[in-house]
Each structure stands twice: as C-alpha cells, then as structure tokens.
Write a structure and sequence with these properties.
Layout lengths: L1 H28 L11 H13 L2 E2 H10 L6 H13 L3 E4 L6 E4 L3 H16 L5 H10 L4 H15 L6
Antiparallel strand pairs: 1-3, 2-3
C-alpha cells in the first residue's frame, strides 16, 4: 500500500509541476495582453496536426510529425504543445496521466491573421498588390479562375457580369 501511495503522490507532484510550468509560460508569452498571441512556424506545424486529428496526445502529435519527416524529439513536441496551451491556442484535458490536446483556434483564423500580417509587413497594408502577385505567380485551374472572376465582379458591383 505504501508503494501505491508514493505512486499517487509522484503523479500529483508531476501534474502540479506541469501546471506550474504552463502558468509560467502563460505569464511570459502573454505579457502584452493587447496583442494576439504569436504563432511561429514550429507551433504552426503542431497546430496542423491538431487540426487534422482534432484531439491528440503529445505522442500522437510527435508520431504524426515523425511520419512527415520531422526530426523533433518527443520533449520538443511536448514543449510546443505546452506553449500553445499557455497562449490559449490549444486546450488540454489533464484529468488522466496522458494529456489530450485540441485546437482552440481554427485554421481559418490563423490564415486570416497570417495574411493580414503579410499584407501589413510586405505591402504596407494594401491587399491588391498581394493579389496581383499571387495571380501572376500561381497556376490556376478553370474553377479557381471562375471563382476569382465572381469575387472580382462582386467587388466591382457587376452582379450580372458572368
């Protein structure tokens, strides 16, 4: 019985340690409360796995990244998940020994933020030059061309032009 009590005590200390670490990261990363949390490329890779799987353990994420050719260690993936949670970008269920994580932000929200940042930084807040660049540099299929024409017609108020 003493060994079982020690095991429970060890688990409790382990959980408390992880919680304190997450809270410490939250204070560090959220020091500028008015700014939206950043999402570096490394964390974006982890988010892609969470979006795909919807709910995953650190091991699930690590294995998915390994299958995609990542050289990150399990510890690195675990740290990235904790950072995402501290920023409020991922949630977790910590009721069991193995934590489960899920995205707290949609892929669309991240795309919107990243594109806005790109437009602000590279195009002085003007989206048209980015659109022109993309149209010149990307091959489009006929369905994509039709969709873009419809969007442009709608932007110009030409609802009957098709």
């Amino acid at each position: 019985m003493i060994g079982g009590e020690a095991d429970v005590s060890h688990r409790s200390l382990f959980k408390q340690s992880r919680q304190m670490e997450a809270e410490k990261m939250a204070k560090t990363t959220n020091s500028k409360a008015s700014k939206e949390p950043t999402l570096p490329d490394s964390e974006l890779e982890v988010m892609r796995v969470l979006w795909q799987k919807e709910r995953a353990t650190a091991r699930d994420v690590w294995e998915a990244l390994q299958s995609q050719g990542s050289a990150w260690t399990y510890a690195t993936v675990n740290t990235l998940l904790q950072r995402l949670e501290a920023k409020g970008l991922a949630g977790s269920d910590k009721t069991k020994m193995t934590y489960t994580y899920w995205p707290q932000i949609s892929r669309g929200q991240v795309v919107k933020r990243r594109v806005k940042h790109l437009v602000d930084k590279l195009y002085d807040g003007k989206g048209a030059p980015l659109v022109v660049h993309l149209l010149k540099s990307q091959r489009l299929n006929s369905q994509e061309v039709t969709e873009i024409r419809q969007l442009l017609d709608g932007a110009l108020g030409n609802d009957d032009a098709k």
